Amino acid sequence: MGVEYVFDYSSATVIDDIVAALKGKGEMAGIFSAIGKPETLIQCAAVIQRLEGRQHVATVRPPGFPAVENWPEGVEISNNASSHMNSEMSGAVWGAWLEAALRDGSMKCRPKYEVVGKGLEAVQMRWI
User: Fold this and answer.
1) What stretch of H or E contains 51?
2) Of 35, 44, 4, nearest to 21 (Cα)?
3) Do 3 and 27 contact (CB within 8 A), yes or no?
4) Which superkingdom (predicted)?
5) So where are the chain's domains?
6) Which of 25, 46, 67, 74 holds its CA 20 to 30 A away from the CA of 103?
């Protein structure tokens, strides 16, 4: 996947550490939180506020959950849940963009696949 940085989310300086690593790298399109916990979303908002670019946090937090308290003014938040599967956005991302990105190599399937046998009976062989 080309990981450049790893951060300890429980570090007292994680926000400063991420900002320092990304500062000057250009305009950000936003931040994606795959966790969706309120504390994590607030940390993401604190990071994006200190960087250049779109002030946006996208998350897997499902629609209908209570709003995150003390959400900073000026930072957008959106969810990327299955309710979007039949929307115009899902077609653009999962259809047009992803297919082209996989083809041109700008998006890679990871982790790499591992062939462990033949047929469905081999599915669990890796863990035996």
Assistant:
1) none
2) 4
3) no
4) Eukaryota
5) 1-84, 87-128
6) 25
Closest CA to 13 of 55, 59, 53, 46: 46
As a whole number, the mean pLDDT across the chain is: 83
Looking at residue 104, its pLDDT comes to 92
The values of phi and psi at residue 104, to 5°, are -90, 0
Using the structure block, give the residue that is written with the tokens 């936003």: 30
Residue with tokens 């940390």: 43
Tell me the C-alpha distance between 92 and 81, whole Å: 15
Order of strands, edge to edge, in the sheet holding 76-79? 31-33, 56-59, 76-79
Query: 33: exposed, middle or buried (C-beta count within 10 Å: 0-12, 13-18, 19+)?
Result: buried
The residue among 25, 31, 28, 65 whose CA lies nearest residue 46 is 31
Q: Which residue has the higher pLDDT, 57 or 84?
A: 57
